Amino acid sequence: MARLMSTERITHFQEEASFTVVDEPAILETEDLDRMFLGGGPDPDTISLASVTAVTTNISVTVVEARQLIGLNMDPMVCVEIGEDKKYTSMKESTNCPYYNEYFVFDFHVPPDVMFDKILKLSVIHSKNLLRSGTLVGSFKLDVGTIYFQPEHQFYHKWALLSDPEDISAGCKGYIKCDVTVVAKGDTIKTPHKANESDEDDIEGNLLIPEGVPAERQWARYYLKIYRAEGLPRMNTSIMANVKKAFIGENKDLVDPYVQVLFAGQKGKTSVQKSCYEPIWNEQIVFTEMFPPLCKRIKIQIRDSDKVNDVAIGTHFLDLRKISNDGDKGFLPTLGPAWVNMYGSTRTYTLMDEYQELNEGLGEGVSFRARLLISLGVEILDTSSPEISNATDVQLEGIPNISETATGKVEEFFLFGSFLEATMIDRKIGDKPINFEVTIGYYGNEIDGAAGPKSGKGKKGSGDEEETELIHNSSDEEMDDDGDLTSVATTPPMKPVVTDRNYFHLPYFERKPCIYIKSWWQDQRRRLYNANIIDNEDGLNDVQEIIKTEKTYPERRLRGVLEELSRGCSQFLSLANQDQNLSGRTKLDRERVKLCMSEVESIGQQAKAMRSQVKKSTVRDKVKLAQNFLTKLRFLAEEPQHSIPDVFLWMISNGKRIAYARVPSKDILYSTAEEETGKDCGKVKTIFLRIPGKKGFGPAGWTVQSKIEIYLWLGLTRQRKDYLNGLPNGFEENKLCKGPGMPCSPPISLTYMMKQIFQLRVHMYQARSLFAADSTGLSDPFARVFFSTQSQVTEVLAETLCPTWDQLLVFENVELFGEACELRDDPPIIVIELYDQDTVGKADFMGRTFAKPVVKMADEHYGPPRFPPQLEYYQIYRGNCTAGEMLAAFELLQIGPNGKADLPPIDGPTDMERGPILPVPLGIRPVLSKYRIEVLFWGLRDLKRVNLAQVDRPRVDIECAGKGIQSALIPNYKKNPNFSTLVKWFEVDLPENELLHPPLNIRVVDCRAFGRYTLVGSNAVPSLRKFIYRATDKQANNFTTSEEIVVVSMEPEPGFKKMDTVVKLDCGADAVVKVEDDDKDGKGKKKKRKKGEEIEEEELDQSMLDWWSKYFASIETLTEILKAQEATLSESEDKDDMDITDGGDIKPEDAPVKPPKRGKGKKDRRKQFDPFEKKKAKLDELKVYPKELESEFDNFEDWLHSFNLFRGKGGDDDDQNVTDEDRIVGKFKVRTE
């Protein structure tokens, strides 16, 4: 399928960086960092830190009134209920149309996922008092998530339709008019525009339902069948059970499971199966609820019944949008019978489970917990039929057993993995022996030791322990019936070796440990294959990068992407409909294939049609449309009916589980058709392990726990003959010897006979727009580069967000295993981490990026076009957010038989002050030219306090490429915030390639007594390209920029603007300057200071009126107009919107004066004001502005660029407390010519 890159996730990796483009942040195609760093794709049930961290949420409900309530002699009151919280309005006596206008606020401090699942219930109760609970007239309910995802997070003046849950045939019981708003931290709430009373009285047109939901909803029955569960972890929450087992020796299953289902505020439970790890329920829970329901998810949870406290074993959410379709050819919610996999905390039982919240469905599961066989059906009720029961209580009914083959034929699957490298192991873990464990479902886990298929007779056991110890030093190896070893799930423990002060690595060298696991699952590969065909996408990111960096021909790349997309769609149509008669196909499978085929066909046709319409001018719009295709495909790719569970990798140190990674099984699933194969199947993949639970999010989780190069292959055992084909060549297999005539087992390790020696050269030139890690708003950055088992650091540069290191790092004698040609085409990745050096404590993490080097083999010539490598920009990521760019180049040079003599020479240090630091060589560093930067210093406005002290004597420092200038000092900021010296300039050497220009750094400092300087705020202008002055006759190397620092755009003094202006009338020019000087003392207290402009060039009798007469006449006119307006305003205070032009239009009908020609005034004939026309018939008045010109002329944005000044430490993507808005201490403007 044409690979379109997701913009929802940050894509980091491409298999080959494009080394020909200098200005493009290199994107490696292997995988997105988010995914890589999290160690695999998240389960649909799990989200980021934001969804699992408790946040304060306010839900405000205004009950305005109720109408058309059914009943006689009513005393109605309204109950507002959210979760367990209830609040009541006052009671209104003897009315069917009560008016309340009462306001309620509910405060919650829970994770958003929990919040969105809460149900808001509005009920009308009749005759409630202290002695009686009252009679329910009708109720309405919807989930909080539905409200939150409305525009502005609210329903405003909408009517909730009431129905009686006890009598589903009764119809509408009345309406409640209410406002509902959900506000989480950081949300801005806008009050909606008031509609006309008549519009709001249209109840049917203003119902409280989301867009797309029909006004008349019907009652329906939801039948959730629960058959059985498998693979529950060995556990018990009762201490007494373990004591009993220890003393009496009973070996019962120590779990009493039942299933609890929450849907639309109702709760249903199955019976409890006592002492059973493989419970069989064969029960169905029946909910009666309106259709479509106003809640998105059904929560299904397996719980362990306990006398003290029931504990969740695993949780699964059924998203109703994914198992239904509301289109013309749509279908009602349906599912299964199918297995759903549940993930949560580790399977190891501990008394206090620190990851228990994972079992509740909060966060990404770190281990397989169980799988549950369920099915869902929905039946719309005909409420007029007499057979229909009116009861809406949750029902529990028994159902017949389901056949073994109903969910598909059980097949034997084979998972193979080889650990090629384990580096960047966090040194905090300690130097105890480390091993890795791989599990798939309940297979491979050392506690379970499951060795056979669960269906049928099943077979379990921990294998022969003596043989285990002798053979492999591993704790988990089992034999199956034919003598083949079914499971080697852990690598042998190995003591880590120090890489540098932060990280260890494991000394695998030429001997690479392997794991393999046999497992048995229902063969539902078709579901994963279809998802793989849809999910194989890339390309949109390329187009966006081309547009962003202003490279040529983005339209060609987009046409190519759309061509691939339409071709991929037709491939899907030919492949997806195979295996129609496969056992275990459910109604949802058939409907989803129909839906996917129609959607994909439509997308393919649209992409084909759009391809011919792509032009240079329409590229941006077409990219947005292509993005919509991508969103649709992503939705279709998510399979609600699970099959093979995900694979988990765990790093274990001295028996303690440290970090994990989760690999979706579809990504490594093998198929004979290439399009259906998972994107990582049979490939060496880089995975970063992470800390489990909440600790794995935010700053604590950014430290790499371990970086693993691993090869994974998953497929049917009968297809496994080529499972080693994707590994780097040049190895020998080490197998367990089991005697003559015994079948061959997979290798337990690989020994590489081929070893290549390389030298890596890292050319670290500069970085820009880095994260502000210090309280000053700056950082002291240095970079740490990791490659294979080595690491090196650059020097630390103080107080900058745009460091220029200009440093060459040389990694000597890098050993890589495999054939030379493979290493040339697919070298290992380089990891670059940026840190902020602190004087006390450890360095702060600022971001991370990845690169692949250009490789030169010993027999290749070092020369164009590939060498020397060009500098490229690499996007830096901090968590899920971008945190700047780094300009660097990387080359990997093979050391041949002649040693280093064949390598290009390295020049020694050139700058004695920097000591032994090697600079970037001349062929790679940019070619420099001399530029002149001119700055027009304007003034400062509204600067915020620094350390509680007001800014008194500010100065602006401009710096670029190590050179810079300082503005004149403002002696008294409060009295006059403008600079005395306006224009300054400095010369600087900048790269000829404009895309490599360093940023322009702007800093405002306050000069205080005793020679102290305090940073007020700073900003870095990342690109200078748009400010370069280009002469009309030839390309000039002059760079001119005029700059004004106007903090929060407050009252720029117009005097300076006038000085630039060419004035055609001498008297006008003199007068302008005098007026401006006069105004400076007034500081804006008099309206007349604002710009009187000169008259148009016309035939005027200068002897009759001089300029000043016209000026004062204009002021008089303005005063009269303003007085008239004030009188009009006082008379019409009740009007909502009163414009300044209502009393009399002071703005002329002429267009406003063009800002660049501000000196040239336009006369205002003021034909509309008849009284004045009569008074001053022959008077040509000037246009007088009663307020500052900046607000009148759109902040002068037609000739000035606005930038924010920042101070303080930057906020993280997961840090809810710090936003960029909080760090703004003002704005500055740059004039471009």
UniProtKB/TrEMBL annotation:
GO terms for biological process: plasma membrane organization; synaptic vesicle priming. One of its GO terms (molecular function) is calcium ion binding. It is a single-pass membrane protein. GO terms for cellular component: presynaptic active zone membrane; synaptic vesicle membrane. Gene3D superfamilies: C2 domain. Residues 39-160, 199-334, 742-867, 914-1039 form the C2 domain. The keyword Ribosomal protein does not apply. SMART domains: C2 (SM00239), FerB (SM01201), FerI (SM01202). Residues 451-483, 1077-1096, 1128-1172 are annotated as: Disordered. Residues 1131-1142 have a biased composition (Acidic residues). Residues 1155-1166 have a biased composition (Basic residues). Pfam families: C2, FerB, FerI. It comes from the Eukaryota. InterPro entries: C2_dom, C2_domain_sf, C2B_Ferlin, C2C_Ferlin, C2D_Ferlin, FerIin_dom, Ferlin, Ferlin_B-domain. The keyword Transmembrane helix applies. Keywords: Membrane, Repeat, Transmembrane, Transmembrane helix. It is found in: Membrane. This is Otoferlin. It comes from Liparis tanakae.
